[in-house]
Amino acid sequence: MQFYPKSVMGAEWHDDFVHRLVEWDEEEYGEFDVSDWSHRETFQELLYDNHGVDASIQEFEWVKGGYVQGLTGLNWDTTYLIVERDQGYEDVLQEKLNVELEPGSYSELG
Description:
Layout: E1 3-12, H1 16-21, H2 26-29, H3 37-51, E2 55-59, E3 68-72, E4 79-84, H4 89-97, E5 102-109
Antiparallel strand pairs: 1-4, 1-5, 2-4, 3-5
């Protein structure tokens, strides 16, 4: 396995992002919980379906020799809404969320 460089834009996660970006049906999905992987996947699918934005919710956990190395521009142990840089998604998210996305990079084991 080798490390692959990633260039991303990210905004520190806030739970109100869900309701600002997608129509989250609490009767169908329950109350959104960022720690629930199925909720993250459903949110990502709804975000893509509604806005054509391919994004992920990601937390960078520091572990010596871990699968993420060389994180710059973003903070360890913080949850972010992440998009790949230069894909055109940043403008949509910045407009909808009214936040500045921060540039970041890292290498990921793949």
